[in-house]
Structures are given as C-alpha cells and as structure tokens.
Design the sequence.
C-alpha cells in the first residue's frame, strides 16, 4: 500500500539489489556496534560504582570502544557508498526513463503539459524521490532496527520501566499518522507551484525578444512575483505542519526520559534496578530518541517522495507511441504511395474539424502541391501523414498499409519532413543537417549544403560546418534556418518528402534555385509541397486547394487556372503583382 | 551572425572565494535581520532547554540515586597527619569509623585523598546515608548488619540496600523519591518550553528563508530580463531556468540550516564545552583532545567537496538545457525518428551527472565516518581517564555520566554540522553560479540622464547615419549604413538572405549597441534615451513569432488595458477575426505554450494583430506575413494602408510584390546599402533589385 507509487522504480531497485543488500548489512552492523557501546559504558559505570583497585579494566573497556568505533567507520562508509550510490542510480534511471518517455509521448499529450512542468518533474521531484529512496530507506532501517534492539535491551533491564517509557511512543505514532496525509497534500502543492514557477521562467526566456520589444519586463516581473509568492505561501503552508511535527515528536521522545527520571528513579531507589541499569537505560532511551525523531523525518521524506513519485508517474502513465524495443524498423514503406480515404480530423479543442472528408490518391513519385488560406488545414494534413497526431483507422494508407498498422518508427522512416517552424538544435551545423542520418558522411552534408545554397554562408562562419549554432538556431537568420531544415530533410532519403511552407523566409533568387533543385529531388520520390506561392507548386502533378479543412479544388495547374476559385485568385494575385513589377 | 560560443557546459574553472560570495549575498539578508536575530535567539533558548535536560539525570544520580559516602578509618591523631579538619568527616558511633560525605569527597581532591588511599584508610565500599529518624533506625536494625550511625546520619552499605523489603525501603528512601518527583516536574516544564520555542523557531526560519529566496529569485529573474540579446544567444534557456529555479531552491536548505541548526549547533557545542570545563576542566581537556584532528580533516575535505559540487551544478544545468531543447522541438525529433538517438545523448549527460554526484557522495562517505571515530574515541578517553579519576574520587560518578551524556550531545551537532557542511558546500556551488550570473555585465545600459523622446518634428523619424556593426569582432554585419525614414513613410528593406536586414531591426530596437555611427529617432540618438521609452514607441512584428501560454486576448493585449472592441478591431484589420470566431470561447480561448495549437500563419496573424493593437508611431515588420497566404496578406495590406499612412513604418520583406508601394526601398547587400529608391526608380536602374524582381517573375510565369 505504502509502496504503491514506487512500483515505478522497482526495476532499478532490483538491479541494485546487491548494493542495497551490502548497504543494509553494513547499516545493521553499524547499528549493532552502536548498541554495544552503551553496554560497555554500563560495564564501566557498574565497575566504578562497585569500586575497583586498578585501572586495567577501564583500559580494556576503552580499547573495546575504539575497536568498535573503527568497525563503525568502515561499515558506515560501505553503507553510505552503497545506499546513497543506489539512490543516485535510481535517480539517474528514473530521469532517463522520464526523458525517454517524454520524448516518445504523442504530441497531443505533450500539448497538455508545459515544458517547464516537465523540467520541474525531472529535477525537483526526482530529488524528492531520491531522498526518499536513499536517506529515507536508511532512516527506516535504522529506526526499525535501533528501535527494536533498544526496546529489547530495555525490556531485559526492566519490562515495566520499558513499557512506561514507551507510552509517549504511542502518541508519536498516532500524531505521525494524523499529520502525514497533510504533509503529502501540502508537499504536492509545493511541487505544483514549483512547476508553474519553472515554466514562467522558461517561457520568459524563450520569448525574451517579444518581452523586450514590447517593454513587458516590469509587468512580467510583477506576474513572476505573484507566482514566486504563491510558491512561498505553499511552502509556508507545509511548514505549518512540519513545524508542528518535529517539535512534537521531540517533545514526546524527551518525555520518555522524564518518565525514566521519575519511574526509573523510583526503581533504582528501591533497588529494583542498579544505578548502572539506570544509566544504561538512559543510554538506550537516548538511542531511541533518534529513531523516534527519525520516524517523523521518514514520514516526511516518504510523503514528499510519494507525492513527487505520483507526479512523475503522472507523466509515465501516459501511454507513449513508440515500441519499447530499440530494434530497427522492420518494414519501411519503400514506394511512397499514399492513399487518403475520407479523412476527418479535429484537434479536441477546436469546435470544427480541422480536416473534413479529405480523399486523395497519390501514386509513387507524384508531386502534390497543397495550398489554401492560413488556417485551412495544410499543416494538419502533413502532421497526420506523419502520425504526429493520432489518425482515425482506415483513413490514411501508405503503400497500401493503414498507417495505424505500422509502428511509428516504420512509418516515420518513410518521410523526409521540413516543418513550418524551422527548429534547429544547439549542435554544430553538420550535426543539424545530419539530424536524421547521424552517421552521414561529411561529403554528403556538404553536397546538400550546396544544394540549398547555404554552403558559402557556412564557409564564412568561424568554424564552418563545425560552428555550434545557438539554441533553436537563435544565431541564424530565418532564411538560413529554413535552408538548413531543407538540407536536413533531403539528407534523409526517404520515399516521401514533405515540405511544409518552408520557403517563406527565403529571398526570391534563393527560392528559385532551391525549387529547381527540389524538382530534381522530387522526381525520385513522392513529394508534398505546401506553399502559398504558385511558383512553388505550379509544376505539381496534383494541386490541392484547401479551405477550412475541405478540399475546395483539386487538379493540375492548367486545370485550376481555367476555373474560377481560390487557386485562380491566388494565381491572378501573384501574376498581377509580377506584371506590376 | 551573433556570437556562437553557446555550450551546454559552463566553465569549471571560475572560483569565487567563499567570503566574497557570502558578502555579496548578505545584502539579501539585511532586510530580515530582526527576524534572523529572533530565530537565533529562539535557537539559543531551545538549545538552553535541551542542554538542561541531561542535567536532570545528573542531579537525580548524584543527589538521590547513587548518593554515597565513603568510610574512612582513622584515629583522632591522624587528623593532623593528613591535615584533615574535624568538619571534613562525620564520626560514626563505633570506633575508628568515620564517614566522608560526597560534597567533602569532591572538595578534598588531590594529595590528601591519595595519601589516605595509599594508607588503605578509605574503603572501596560505598555507603548510602540518610538523615536519622527512629523509623529508619528500626528498619536498619531489623534488616541490615552492619550499619553505622552518627549524630545526624544513618550509614548503610549500598550492597545491603537490596536486602530490605519494599515497604521498608520506600520509607527509608522517601526523601530521595520526593526529590526525584520534583526533578521530574521541572523536567516537564523545561520540555514544554523547548517545544514552544522550537516550533516558533522553525516557522520563523522557514518564513525568513522563503522570503529571502523570493527576493533572490526576483533579483535573478529581473536581472535575466535585463540581459542584452547576445547573452541569450550564449546561454541555453534550460541553463538559465536552472539558475533561477533549482539553484535558488538549492539555497533553501542552507538558509534553514544557517538560521536554525548551524547557530543552534554552534551554541550547543560551545555550551557543552563551557559546561564541561566548569564541571571538570581536566576531564574536559582530555575529552576534547581529538577536536583539532577533526578541524584539520574538515579543511582537507573542503576543497574536494567544493569542486565536486560545482561540477554537479554545471551538469544539472546541462541536463535541463538538453531536456528543454528536446521538449521544445519535439515535433522535429519525432518527424526524424530521432527519439532513441536523442535519448542516448541525454543519457550520456545523465550519466555524467551521476558521476559528478557520486564523486561528491564518495568524498562525503569518507569524511562523515571520521566524525564518528572522533566521537567514540572521546568516549573511550572519558571511560579510561575519567574512570581513573572516579576511582580516586577526583570526579563523581554523576560527573562521569554527565560527560558521557554530553559527549553524545556534543557530537550530534558536529555530525549535524558535517551533514550541514555538505549542504553548505552544495549551496555555495549554487551561490557561485548565481553570483556569476548576477555579475554578468552584458546589458544595454540606459544613459544616466535620459532624454525623452520628442514628438516627431520636421526631420526624419528614423535616421541611420554611417552605422557599422558586428556581432563578433572582425565580422562586420553592417557597414556604413545610412538612410532616413520620414514621418508617415513606409520604407522597405530588401536583400538576399543574410544581408543584414534583421540586424537593422535589432539595432533600431537597441537589442545591440552599434560600434560606430548613430541611430536617431525623431532626432534623438537612441543611446540618449531609455530603452523602454524607445521600444514603447515601436511595434514590432517578428519573423519568429512567440506566443505566451494564456488566452488569445492576453496574447494580444500583453497585459495592457484595452477594451474588447479595440482588440476585435485589431483582429479584423489583420484578418485574424476568423480565429476568434473559430474558438468556442472567442477572445478567452486558451493558447497553450508557444501557441503550439495554432498554425504558423495563424500565429503570425496574432502577432500582427498584437502590433496593430499597440498602435504606436512606428511600426516595424520583419517578414510579418511570410507564412500568411497571399490573399489574406493583400487584404491585410489594404486594411493597413490607411493605418500606415499615419504611421511611420519599416518593413522587411522577401516577396517584393508586398513592398512595391513603399515610399522608399532600400536594397541591402552584404551589409551595405547597395541601392535605394522607389520601386520604379530601382526598376529603371536595372540593378540588384531589378534582378531580384526578374527572378520572382520568372517563378510565376
């Protein structure tokens, strides 16, 4: 029941079982050694109370303590190394899994969470789990063992005194149980507030240009302030419980010593126990106060860990779309024949479907031009071909196979894709071009850079192809980014090439020559070009004109300019513009 | 191209002295000094209460439980031999037996006792003594043989006590039991006091540390926002997020430790040292003889631990940067099937982070048990040396127990400190990162006495005069660029990709400072006015659209006050009103992070509407309609036409058709102005512009 949220880390725990075992054994050895020390002390006190003539027994006892101490040092090192190390490994494992899971989640799931939230879970929440699994586990074993051992020793000395001294313990257990669900709830709130805080910082930094350009620094600082303050409040809410928790436990733990004073004192007075017993009893109680306090600490660590674990599970429980195995895709569609059959799709937040009753047959090697007004569903169609969003069954086929029947890697291996947003990574230019084919030879990369007319510009950079570009390609111009994205797609020689409005930031002459190159590339594969420019799609075998998610027109360039309609309008507009030029 | 020395890894080498770190961050503590003083005071009182507790045990032992007299056998003549006073001993009724009471035993240390001991005059046996009453005498006579009496006291060997049956023993030791009850009562009061003090202190500590962290966070956040743009090209978002959130969070434990425990621990340590020296300075000296060793060890581990933690902070930031980037660009990762590859990359960093953490764990795993070694050695010393002292009655048994007790208490805070030391080291690593961040001087400064932006006069609104600029030294991006934009004019900048068009906008917005020349708005150099005032007077629509998580409305108004009517009008002008109608909630429709749910064109429409709503004197459009279809685009242009006629605008465009009607077209080539003029003039010149136009025309026909 208590371990339920932690089922997630079972594998990592099992993997580290030998470390954990070695750590636990060492921990127990340390505990046993620690328990021996009061015995030695008791022997010393009793010896002294009786009175002795030579100091030799004392020396023996002292030497005994030093030997015990040396053993404690060795075994304490071992458990620390084994158990804390294991908690770090569990953290690493969980972080890796969390990341790999996030990356493989369907886009639709990711739309519902913010990047900052996921980042918070990968750092702050993981830390809480790690603390729970490492030091929390140690504290638990320590507490249980020391508790039982101390109690046994105390029982041996005097059962009635033991029972009397342990009555406050009952109160501690009760109080712990009472307060711990509050700790859980409040800590979950703290972590949620931390997520919001993280996302706020992340978003601000990602959108810093807009913030600066519109002079939003102050109003943004205000809104950050209120988020930060909320985080403070949530923390203070937690401390109200924890602040009560620990002193309360301390109070009751020390109350045991008060009881010892009164009742144990009486027993000693009346010779039921010796003064040495009394001192030894006090020592054991002293040892016992640590587990009692630790009990509060453990509950705190556990509740934090569980609250964070549940947050992490919240991510991991989302089903991801990738097969677990890292095996290479088995049967990648090779021809690139696409069949769209009465496809209707809506993002759940839209009121109207983004695409309605789209049907289209694209034989291998065909070039399809897609155009239409902003928001008419062009990019949605591209996203669906790649199954970036879930596609209804029996609506898209590639090489005669339903896309839902293929695994995601099989399907996506069939596409070279240039997205509308030119997203690049903060790696070198080479690595960015070779994004889809990590082991591509340098010559291929350079050849493609020439194809997209960016080679000369790259040569001008300090380190040429090895220049590291800023995050999101922040150091490049829009046109440079788009060309790198095209090169990136072309390098991956997939049977289907999708170009989603990827020429918008390019100047006329570059566009022109890239289109020329693309035409050549298009001969060998099925190509889908989304564009507003007639120039880019006029040579397509089929042109699709979308409007509000519906195919408004379909045909070749010649056919479409003979008809009244959106395409003709676009054509005319651009033709007129050119004539005016 | 702006500087590109972006790296996920930061430098490890910078080391800021701890003193400077503390001095710098102490400014955040200042506003809270009364609260901090209060926590320290509370901590002290709590320590006092806690320190008192074992004392009750000592009192119980010495006064009631093991209270013992010694039998000394001497003749009256021996008094002068051993220079004893008559008051030092209590004469027993029988023969040569005298008894020495515990207070005298403790007072008469040294040579006298040693001499008595050597002569075999002191018996090893302990005697219980109590005031003589008839009832006690009766009990003694009935059960014990032998026992002794003096005028005032009754002496019974300790070993004999256990032969007395319970009710008689209870009567015999009733005074002791009363004393124990009194002690127990006092104990409870002290305990209650400690409870209240600790709770108050814990809350106050959390309150103060949270407030200080809030202040630091605000400071870091504000500082980040003020950084120049080049700062953001060098630092990945994830790293900066780590600084503002995780690193600040990492300070939390230090603050709690600092305000609560460290002060408390140090008080505890000092308190125990003082108490023990008062009780028995010799034994104390012996007990603490191992401390210097511990101090030495601490210094040694300091260096190791600091560098280990520094590495941890750097790795955490690198991990976050990777995660941030992958999640932001997730659709590309997916489309290229790079998931597994990127997971491997991430795991490599993840493993490096683990290694850094393990290094730190190892350092601490060695250091921490050493504290134990010192502790137990101290206990061994007390038993050996202290035990010998007890044998000679130089210290009482109670004192010995007190020492053993306090030794435990003494090493607990030291153990704590060792643990805290770790936290402190970790926090110092974070402080160091924050310090470096807060000391980044890369900001575009406002002039000390800024000039306000005057209303547009007869002169040009925007004026570039001989502007040269490079992001990186030796790689000029703009060279000697001069042009003007008159009031109400629309000026277009065209040129090949990478010609420096966007740079002009960056400079106009003063995202970067130029190296030579000057840029003037309404006749005032942009360096002479506040950045905020400058930017408030321009509306910018960027190539890279950024939408914030929020509503459609909040993305348009950006926190400023507008009525719905104005917002809707702006949407109409940019033909984005379709968007508003498409959403169920209209303007209140939710926009997710980065506007992921909108298409690129739609995002541009929103961004455009945002600028239109702002309605400033100057409108700056950088490829504002590149993803918008030509039909919508031309509708927007028509709508803008009358608006633009009142405004001054600077437009960057690739599609020459969209800027044909501009009052002036500037053709930029390799960072310099190649030609400028109206469309017709440029066409006649048959220069670069003409060639570009030809290309586009060929594209269509």
Sequence:
């Amino acid at each position: 029941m208590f371990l339920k949220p932690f089922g997630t880390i079972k594998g990592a725990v099992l993997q580290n079982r030998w470390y954990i075992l070695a750590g636990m054994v060492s921990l127990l050895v340390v505990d046993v050694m620690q328990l021996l020390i009061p015995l030695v002390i008791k022997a010393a006190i009793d010896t002294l109370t009786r009175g002795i003539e030579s100091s030799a027994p004392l020396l023996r006892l002292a030497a005994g303590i030093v030997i015990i101490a040396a053993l404690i040092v060795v075994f304490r090192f071992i458990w620390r190394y084994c158990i804390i190390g294991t908690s770090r490994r569990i953290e690493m494992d969980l972080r890796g899994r969390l990341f790999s899971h996030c990356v493989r989640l369907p886009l639709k799931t990711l739309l519902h969470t913010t990047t900052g939230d996921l980042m918070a879970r990968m750092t702050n929440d993981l830390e809480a789990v790690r603390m729970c699994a490492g030091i929390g586990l140690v504290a638990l074993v320590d507490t249980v063992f020391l508790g039982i051992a101390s109690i046994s020793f105390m029982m041996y000395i005097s059962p009635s005194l033991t029972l009397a001294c342990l009555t406050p313990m009952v109160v501690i257990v009760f109080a712990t149980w009472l307060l711990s669900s509050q700790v859980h709830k409040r800590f979950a709130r703290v972590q949620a507030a931390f997520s919001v805080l993280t996302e706020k910082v992340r978003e601000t930094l990602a959108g810093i240009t807009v913030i600066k350009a519109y002079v939003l620094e102050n109003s943004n600082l205000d809104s950050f302030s209120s988020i930060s303050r909320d985080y403070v409040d949530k923390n203070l809410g937690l401390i109200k419980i924890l602040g009560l928790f620990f002193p309360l436990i301390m109070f009751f733990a020390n109350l045991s010593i008060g009881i010892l004073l009164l009742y144990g004192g009486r027993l000693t007075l009346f010779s039921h126990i010796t003064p040495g017993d009394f001192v030894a009893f006090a020592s054991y109680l002293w040892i016992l106060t640590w587990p009692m306090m630790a009990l509060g600490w453990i509950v705190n660590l556990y509740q934090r860990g569980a609250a964070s674990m549940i947050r992490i599970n919240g991510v991991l429980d989302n089903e991801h779309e990738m097969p677990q195995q890292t095996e290479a895709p088995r049967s990648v569609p090779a021809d690139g024949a696409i069949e769209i059959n009465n496809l209707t799709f809506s993002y759940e937040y839209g009121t109207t479907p983004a695409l309605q009753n789209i049907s289209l047959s694209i034989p291998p090697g065909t070039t399809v031009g897609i155009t239409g007004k902003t928001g008419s569903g062009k990019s949605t169609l591209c996203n669906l071909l790649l199954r970036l969003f879930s596609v209804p069954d029996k609506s898209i086929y590639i090489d005669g196979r339903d896309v839902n029947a293929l695994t995601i890697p099989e399907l996506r291996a069939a596409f070279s894709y240039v997205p509308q947003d030119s997203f690049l990574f903060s790696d070198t230019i080479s690595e960015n071009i070779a994004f889809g084919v990590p082991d591509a030879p340098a010559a291929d990369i350079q050849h493609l850079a020439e194809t997209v007319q960016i080679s000369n510009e790259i040569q001008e950079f300090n380190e040429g192809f090895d220049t590291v570009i800023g995050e999101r390609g922040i150091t490049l111009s829009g046109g440079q980014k788009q060309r790198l994205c095209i090169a990136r797609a072309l390098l991956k020689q997939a049977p289907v090439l999708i170009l989603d409005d990827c020429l918008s930031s390019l100047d006329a002459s570059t566009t022109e020559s890239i289109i020329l190159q693309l035409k050549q590339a298009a001969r060998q594969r099925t190509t889908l070009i989304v564009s507003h420019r007639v120039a880019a799609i006029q040579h397509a075998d089929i042109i699709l004109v979308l409007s509000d998610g519906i195919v408004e027109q379909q045909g070749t360039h010649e056919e479409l300019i003979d008809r009244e309609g959106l395409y003709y309008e676009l054509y005319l507009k651009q033709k007129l513009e050119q004539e005016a030029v | 191209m702006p500087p590109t020395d972006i790296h996920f890894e930061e430098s490890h080498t910078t080391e800021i002295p701890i003193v400077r770190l503390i001095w710098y961050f102490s400014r955040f503590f200042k506003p809270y000094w009364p609260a901090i003083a209060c926590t320290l005071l509370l901590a002290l009182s709590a320590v006092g209460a806690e320190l008192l507790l074992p004392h009750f045990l000592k009192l119980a032992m010495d006064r009631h439980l093991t209270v013992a007299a010694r039998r000394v056998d001497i003749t009256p003549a021996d008094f002068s031999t051993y220079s004893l006073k008559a008051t030092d001993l209590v004469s027993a009724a029988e023969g040569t037996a005298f008894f020495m009471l515990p207070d005298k035993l403790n007072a008469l240390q040294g040579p006298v006792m040693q001499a008595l001991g050597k002569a075999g005059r002191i018996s090893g046996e302990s005697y219980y003594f109590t005031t003589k009453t008839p009832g006690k005498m009766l009990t003694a006579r009935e059960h014990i043989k032998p026992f002794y009496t003096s005028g005032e006291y009754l002496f019974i060997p300790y070993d004999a006590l256990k032969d007395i049956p319970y009710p008689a023993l209870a009567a015999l030791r009733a005074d002791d039991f009363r004393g124990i009850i009194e002690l127990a009562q006092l104990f409870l009061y002290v305990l209650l006091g400690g409870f209240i003090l600790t709770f108050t202190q814990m809350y106050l500590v959390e309150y103060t540390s949270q407030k200080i962290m809030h202040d630091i966070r605000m400071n870091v956040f504000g500082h980040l926002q003020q950084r120049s743009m080049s700062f953001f090209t060098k630092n990945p978002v994830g790293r900066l997020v780590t600084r503002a959130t995780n690193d600040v969070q990492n300070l939390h434990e230090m603050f709690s430790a600092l305000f609560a425990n460290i002060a408390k621990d140090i008080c505890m340590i000092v308190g125990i040292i003082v108490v023990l020296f008062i009780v028995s300075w010799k034994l104390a000296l012996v007990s603490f003889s191992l401390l210097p060793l511990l101090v030495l060890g601490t210094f040694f581990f300091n260096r190791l631990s600091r560098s280990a933690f520094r590495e941890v902070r750097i790795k955490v930031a690198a991990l976050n940067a990777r995660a941030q980037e992958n999640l932001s660009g997730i659709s590309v990762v997916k489309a290229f099937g790079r998931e597994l590859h990127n997971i491997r990359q991430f795991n490599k960093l993840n493993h490096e982070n683990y290694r850094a953490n393990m290094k730190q764990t190892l350092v601490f795993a060695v250091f921490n048990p050493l504290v134990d070694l010192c502790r137990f050695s101290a206990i061994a010393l007390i038993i050996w040396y202290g035990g010998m002292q007890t044998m000679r009655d130089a210290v009482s048994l109670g004192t010995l127990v007190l020492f053993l007790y306090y030794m435990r208490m003494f090493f607990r805070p030291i153990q704590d400190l060792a643990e805290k030391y770790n936290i402190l080291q970790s926090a110092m690593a974070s402080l160091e990162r924050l310090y470096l961040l807060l000391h980044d001087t890369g900001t575009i400064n406002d002039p000390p006495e800024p000039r306000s932006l005057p209303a547009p006069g007869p002169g040009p609104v925007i004026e570039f005069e001989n502007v040269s600029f490079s992001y990186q030294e030796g790689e000029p991006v703009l060279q000697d660029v001069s042009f003007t934009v008159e009031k109400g004019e629309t000026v277009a900048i065209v040129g090949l990709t990478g010609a420096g068009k966007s740079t002009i906008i960056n400079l106009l917005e003063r995202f970067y400072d130029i190296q030579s020349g000057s840029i003037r708005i309404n006749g005032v150099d942009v360096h002479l006015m506040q950045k905020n005032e400058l930017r408030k007077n321009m509306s910018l629509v960027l190539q890279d659209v950024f939408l914030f998580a929020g509503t459609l409305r909040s993305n348009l108004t950006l926190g400023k006050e507008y009525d719905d009517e104005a917002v809707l009008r702006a949407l109409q002008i940019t033909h984005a009103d379709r968007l508003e109608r498409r959403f169920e909630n209209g303007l209140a429709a939710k926009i997710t992070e980065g506007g992921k749910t909108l298409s690129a064109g739609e995002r541009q429409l929103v961004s455009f509407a945002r600028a239109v709503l702002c309605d400033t004197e100057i409108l700056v459009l950088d490829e504002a309609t590149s993803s918008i279809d030509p039909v919508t685009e031309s509708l927007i242009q028509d709508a803008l036409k009358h608006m633009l006629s009142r405004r001054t605008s600077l437009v960057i465009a690739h599609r020459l058709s969209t800027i044909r009607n501009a009052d002036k077209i500037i053709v930029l080539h390799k960072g310099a102005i190649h030609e400028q003029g109206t469309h017709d003039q440029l066409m006649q010149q048959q220069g670069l512009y003409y060639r570009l136009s030809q290309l586009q025309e060929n594209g269509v026909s």
Notes: Chain A has a mean pLDDT of 85. The two ends of chain A are 76 Å apart (CA to CA).
